[in-house]
């Protein structure tokens, strides 16, 4: 026995040595060919008298591409290591990479789910292979045709051995229908997939594919037989973060600019499949009709008005240095996006752009507004972005705010948003039409049309002959300027589509729904129909349920099975429910406003001085402040808090929501001197009349948004700045830094208010940071005046963030202190 085992082991050693020798020979030949190729290139350049300058551009491009690739590869390796780590190692990782359950108390650990996924992961490959081949490949092929690239097909699809990781799970048990279960999962996949494809005769591949996002699973309807759940709806609430590495011939595209094309196509296809309003339905029981899972069910419509922007960064270069910009905005919510027109040569564009988004989930979704500088010769430069949570808008009903741009040194964008709910009352249509006619905005909608195309039957054969082959049908559904395309059903004259779509309708009394079925094999039309929406208004509940409608231009028995439902858009104002049982996706509780508090006293008046013409503006501002304070007092006494608009829109007033609402807007709270009860978190002393250092005081609101991982700072106003010389009134502005480093990245600055000792700013600033970073951070607030070129410091205060409970907004007055030595050194 031992001799046989010794013989087999010796044979294995001989084979391994032979393999090692063969691999070393191949490596030697590869290095030899590589060096010979370099020498041949240099020889040919000299032989044909080609200028060495032709080598400069490829060399520079190669070096830049290599450095860019190293940075991306490092990020992929870190993500892959985190995906393979166990729970203990994840907790000991960097603070920025901690899973969701660390920060959010109602998010459960998911290690048991990760172990189950790890066990079933090998079997997932088979399902994913069919999904990629049947759904993703045709869509990618069609999109690549727009770039004159043809012949795309997947050759090999292997997801690898690293499964996705769930960072936390939350199951909703409040304000949820009894017939469904809603579960949110923090999904992170950083696998070692191996996907190869061919494109225009070239071979390439994708490796190290990564995706991270919040995915929602809705289990509905609940049934009384096994498996107890009729089906699933799976979708991302917002566009996930995607990264990947191209290999093979496609590696030539993996550089800034060129890889954006392929990346954009992949993101679009994932969005079209499972980013709201698109959902991936999975039927688990044959007793459940597909329409239950696939019929679109929006909760309302968010109307967005992108008014203007100001103080944008200057990106264009002029003869005298920095010129202006050519800004445009892209507004995104889920898979839907709109683009404004480009305004040339300005940093204060006025777009007056309207758009609307059907909302299928008010919790978890966020509106993203990104500003860019258009450039014909190179990639457009980013001017900043603003994010607004949909949940906050739905609770307020209507929002009008200037939002400070993130990822930008300066800039604000003016957004108006309105939450419209769905009504079955036909009488509401008259009011909706009147509003659109008054505003004279042609892109506005008055109703929502939901359509579900179940199937078609008896379609004509290809070639128009009875003995021809079955067609490959695909339908297009159109209302107004919006058209949706269905999936292609191959080789059938009775296709089952089972697809639903949502249309925004300008006027249901005059608009028409058009359906056209095409044979993609021959590119010929094999059936069409039109349905006047005014007929739907006469139906009970404005619905048409499973109705077979005849097709024109087809056979005599050809028909399509269709369901339609129309709802009128109606503004109902702010949400009247207390919201105590409703939780956002990350567990931030939405609470009602605190009970009425005693009327606060206005801040002490500034030192009296002799009236001079130069002080008229200051006196006018004081009068306005007194008026706003009086109105605020009366509103508080009537338990009806209101909020003032921005200085540019003084007449705009909206109901105030509690300051701990997860929705971020840059409007200020009521101009009162003390915060509501329940928000007293180590407030600074306000006993002195003009501040502890006789330098005045500043009012700030500080809050940390756990959901968005951002510190929000609102600079409201300054009171009682000292006036040493009545003929030299200061022009104050506020500068912010995050300590301890005081870097340019954390520098923020307000506008300058001319000739005023009691300026009002109401400007909002944000810092992106994890919750763990708050323990060692301080906010330095400095007040300066621009009366001289040096901008002398008038006072400052340092707020220790670790001493405040920033999960709830803290609004307080802070006494200004003399300038510190660190500020003098700046």
TrEMBL record:
Transmembrane stretches, start-end: none
Keywords: Calcium, Lipid transport, Lipid-binding, Membrane, Metal-binding, Repeat, Transmembrane, Transmembrane helix, Transport
SMART domains documented for this protein: C2
A family per Pfam: C2
GO biological process, alphabetically ordered: endoplasmic reticulum-plasma membrane tethering; lipid transport
GO molecular function, one term: phosphatidylcholine binding
Localization terms from the record: Membrane
GO-annotated cellular components: endoplasmic reticulum membrane
Protein name: Uncharacterized protein
């Amino acid at each position: 026995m031992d001799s046989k085992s010794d013989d087999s082991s010796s044979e294995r050693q001989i084979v391994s040595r032979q393999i090692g020798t063969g691999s070393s020979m191949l490596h030697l030949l590869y290095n030899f060919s590589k060096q010979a190729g370099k020498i041949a290139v240099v020889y040919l350049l000299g032989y044909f008298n080609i200028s060495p300058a032709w080598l400069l551009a490829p060399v520079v491009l190669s070096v830049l591409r290599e450095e860019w690739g190293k940075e991306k590869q490092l990020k992929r390796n870190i993500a892959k290591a985190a995906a393979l780590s166990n729970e203990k190692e994840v907790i000991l990782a960097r603070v920025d990479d901690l899973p969701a359950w660390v920060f959010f108390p109602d998010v459960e650990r998911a290690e048991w789910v990760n172990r189950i996924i790890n066990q079933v992961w090998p079997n997932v490959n088979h399902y994913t292979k069919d999904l990629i081949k049947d759904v993703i490949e045709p869509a990618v092929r069609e999109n690549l045709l727009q770039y004159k690239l043809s012949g795309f097909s997947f050759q090999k699809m292997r997801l690898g051995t690293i499964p996705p990781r769930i960072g936390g799970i939350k199951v909703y048990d409040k304000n949820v229908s009894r017939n469904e279960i809603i579960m949110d999962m923090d999904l992170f996949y950083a696998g070692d997939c191996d996907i190869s494809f061919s494109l225009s005769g070239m071979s390439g591949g994708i490796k190290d594919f990564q995706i991270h996002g919040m995915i929602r699973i809705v289990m509905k309807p609940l049934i009384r037989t096994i498996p107890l759940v009729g089906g699933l709806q799976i979708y991302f609430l917002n566009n996930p973060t995607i990264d990947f590495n191209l290999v093979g011939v496609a590696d030539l595209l993996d550089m800034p600019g060129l890889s954006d094309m392929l990346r954009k196509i992949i993101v679009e296809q994932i969005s079209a499949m499972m980013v709201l309003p698109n959902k991936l339905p999975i039927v688990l029981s044959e007793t459940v009709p597909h329409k239950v899972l696939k019929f679109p069910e929006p909760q309302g419509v968010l109307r967005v008005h992108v008014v203007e922007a100001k103080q944008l960064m200057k990106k264009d270069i002029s003869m005298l240095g920095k010129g202006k910009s050519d800004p445009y905005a892209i507004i995104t919510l889920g898979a839907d996006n709109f683009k404004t027109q480009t305004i040339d040569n300005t940093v204060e564009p006025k777009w007056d752009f309207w758009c609307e988004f059907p909302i299928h989930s008010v919790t978890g979704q966020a509106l993203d507004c990104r500003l860019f500088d258009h450039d014909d010769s190179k990639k457009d430069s980013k001017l900043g972005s603003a994010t607004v949570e949909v949940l906050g808008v739905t609770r307020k009903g209507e929002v009008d705010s200037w939002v400070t741009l993130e990822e930008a040194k300066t800039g604000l964008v003016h957004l108006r948003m309105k939450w419209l709910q769905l009504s079955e009352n036909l009488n509401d249509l008259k009011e909706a039409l009147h509003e659109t006619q008054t505003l004279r905005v042609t892109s506005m909608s008055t109703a929502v049309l939901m359509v579900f195309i179940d199937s078609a039957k008896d379609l004509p054969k290809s070639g128009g002959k009875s003995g021809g082959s079955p067609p490959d049908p695909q339908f297009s559904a159109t209302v107004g300027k919006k058209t949706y395309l269905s999936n292609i059903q191959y080789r059938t004259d009775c296709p089952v589509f089972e697809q639903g779509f949502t249309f925004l309708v300008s006027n249901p009394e005059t608009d028409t729904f058009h359906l056209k079925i095409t044979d993609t094999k021959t590119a010929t039309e094999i059936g069409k129909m039109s349905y006047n929406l005014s007929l739907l208004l006469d139906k009970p509940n404005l619905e048409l349920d499973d109705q077979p409608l005849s097709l024109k231009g087809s056979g005599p028995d050809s028909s399509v099975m269709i369901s339609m439902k129309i709802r009128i858009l109606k503004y109902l104002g702010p949400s009247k429910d207390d919201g105590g049982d409703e939780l956002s996706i990350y567990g931030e509780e939405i609470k009602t406003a605190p009970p009425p508090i005693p009327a606060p006293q206005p801040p002490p008046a500034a030192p009296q001085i002799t009236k001079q013409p130069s002080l008229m503006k200051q006196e006018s501002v004081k009068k306005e402040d007194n008026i706003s304070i009086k109105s605020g007092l009366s509103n508080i006494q009537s338990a009806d808090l209101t909020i003032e608009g921005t200085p540019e829109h003084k007449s705009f007033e909206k109901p105030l929501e509690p300051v701990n609402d997860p929705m971020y807007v840059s409007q200020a709270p009521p101009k009162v001197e003390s915060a509501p009860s329940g928000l007293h978190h180590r407030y600074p002393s306000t006993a002195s009349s003009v501040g502890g250092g006789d330098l005045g005081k500043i009012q700030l609101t500080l809050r940390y948004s756990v959901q968005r991982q951002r510190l929000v700072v609102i600079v409201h106003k300054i009171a009682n700045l000292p006036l040493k010389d009545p003929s030299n009134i200061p022009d104050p502005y506020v500068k912010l830094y995050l300590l301890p480093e005081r870097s340019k990245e954390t520098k923020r600055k307000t506008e300058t208010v001319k000739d005023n000792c009691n300026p009002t700013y109401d400007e909002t600033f944000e810092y992106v940071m994890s919750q763990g970073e708050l323990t060692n951070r301080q906010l330095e607030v400095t007040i300066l005046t621009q009366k001289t070129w040096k901008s002398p410091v008038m006072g400052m205060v340092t707020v220790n963030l670790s001493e405040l409970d920033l999960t709830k907004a803290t609004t307080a007055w802070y006494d200004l202190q003399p300038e510190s030595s660190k500020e003098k050194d700046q």
